[in-house]
Design brief:
It contains 1 helix and no strands. By secondary structure, the chain is an all-alpha fold. The chain has one domain. It is rod-shaped and about 180 Å long. The N terminus is likely disordered.
């Protein structure tokens, strides 16, 4: 059985000791070398994968920041359009108010004109009647004087 903490997998059972008291490591077998190489490859793949994920996350964050800037620019453009259009809206509102006032004034003037027209018709009828009476009197006077 080998210790999990050591990359080179030293046996837990004590190996033969050298004269300085350090345990002698047994020579590595082909399978051990392959396993160690495989672990290195796995670590490299994991590192490359983590690096790829980090790069992808960075790209996505940059894209989100770019999209936020686009939305900010759109809101700014809308604000500018509204600010530029506000005087025209105010002027249009003023024109509508003026038109309403003019319509009301026109209605009042039409009412007065209608009253004047009625009065004028009455006067005209009276004048025509008076003219007919005067003509009748003149005709009667002429007829009576001829006889």
């Amino acid at each position: 059985m080998y210790g999990a903490a050591d990359d080179e997998q030293t046996p837990l059972v004590s190996a033969s000791r050298q004269p300085n008291g350090v345990a002698k490591k047994p020579p590595k077998t082909g399978l051990q070398v392959q396993a160690q190489e495989r672990r290195k490859e796995v670590h490299l793949v994991a590192y490359a994968t983590e690096e790829g994920i980090a790069r992808e996350q960075h790209q996505e964050a940059a894209k989100v920041a770019e999209d936020v800037q686009v939305v900010k620019d759109l809101f700014q453009e809308n604000r500018n359009i509204i600010v530029q259009g506000q005087p025209a809206l105010d002027q249009t509102e003023g024109n509508v108010d003026q038109a309403g006032q003019h319509v009301e004034k026109g209605r009042q003037e039409l009412s007065k004109a209608n009253e004047h027209q009625k009065a004028s018709r009455k006067r005209m009828c009276m004048l025509v009647f008076l003219l007919v009476v005067v003509i009748a009197v003149v005709v009667i006077v002429i007829i009576v004087t001829k006889k």
